[in-house]
Amino acid sequence: MALVVSPGMTTLNHTGVSHTVFRLLGIPGLEDQHMWISIPFFICYVVALLGNSLLIFIILTKSSLHEPMYLFLCMLAGADVVLSACTVPQALAIFWFHAGEISLDRCITQFFVTHCIFMSESGILLVMAFDRYIAICYPLRYSTILTHALIGKIGVAIFLRRYCTIFPIIFLLKRLTFWQNNDLHLLLSKQQREQCHV
């Protein structure tokens, strides 16, 4: 939005374009190969879902595995399940069914969930490193330092950290105006061409 001042009158020039639907067109230049590209995506998706779900099930059902290290591993596996369930189905829909339309709200929601999961994974990895530090440096006091109550508080702190960091960005994204073209792979192609000419 630009402010144009004329003698005796103020007007606003609304030149920004904001789309509510974007078309995700896949990988530029390889549209005819999308079926072959989707095979590794699908295999990795199934392996990630089955492996992490099995890990969560085993840790939750075996009472001998209710130790801090395994509970943190369970949190990490849960984050991986949510991350893969959030991103890969959209990519497979583009590759298999050419269903690349995504609303702005859905895109922002996917952005929010993806970045929250990345932040929680980094927090969980940090806590796992702290857990190993306590186990190595203070082995006799390990069970009194890392209690189940403390693990629960750490999980809540990780959740609040990721939520409070990413949530304000959503309001900033909703205020933006976007490109005049809502075909996202064309934007990448234009940027690549501009970089080649520079």
UniProtKB/TrEMBL annotation:
<comment type="function">
    <text>Putative odorant or sperm cell receptor.</text>
</comment>
<keyword id="KW-0807">Transducer</keyword>
<dbReference type="GO" id="GO:0005886">
    <property type="term" value="C:plasma membrane"/>
</dbReference>
<dbReference type="InterPro" id="IPR017452">
    <property type="entry name" value="GPCR_Rhodpsn_7TM"/>
</dbReference>
<keyword id="KW-0297">G-protein coupled receptor</keyword>
<feature type="transmembrane region" description="Helical">
    <location>
        <begin position="150"/>
        <end position="173"/>
    </location>
</feature>
<dbReference type="GO" id="GO:0004930">
    <property type="term" value="F:G protein-coupled receptor activity"/>
</dbReference>
<keyword id="KW-0812">Transmembrane</keyword>
<dbReference type="InterPro" id="IPR000276">
    <property type="entry name" value="GPCR_Rhodpsn"/>
</dbReference>
<dbReference type="GO" id="GO:0004984">
    <property type="term" value="F:olfactory receptor activity"/>
</dbReference>
<protein>
    <recommendedName>
        <fullName>G-protein coupled receptors family 1 profile domain-containing protein</fullName>
    </recommendedName>
</protein>
<dbReference type="Pfam" id="PF13853">
    <property type="entry name" value="7tm_4"/>
</dbReference>
<dbReference type="InterPro" id="IPR050402">
    <property type="entry name" value="OR51/52/56-like"/>
</dbReference>
<keyword id="KW-0472">Membrane</keyword>
<feature type="transmembrane region" description="Helical">
    <location>
        <begin position="35"/>
        <end position="58"/>
    </location>
</feature>
<dbReference type="InterPro" id="IPR000725">
    <property type="entry name" value="Olfact_rcpt"/>
</dbReference>
<feature type="transmembrane region" description="Helical">
    <location>
        <begin position="108"/>
        <end position="130"/>
    </location>
</feature>
<feature type="transmembrane region" description="Helical">
    <location>
        <begin position="70"/>
        <end position="96"/>
    </location>
</feature>
<feature type="domain" description="G-protein coupled receptors family 1 profile">
    <location>
        <begin position="51"/>
        <end position="198"/>
    </location>
</feature>
<keyword id="KW-0552">Olfaction</keyword>
<keyword id="KW-0675">Receptor</keyword>
<keyword id="KW-0716">Sensory transduction</keyword>
<comment type="similarity">
    <text>Belongs to the G-protein coupled receptor 1 family.</text>
</comment>
<keyword id="KW-1133">Transmembrane helix</keyword>
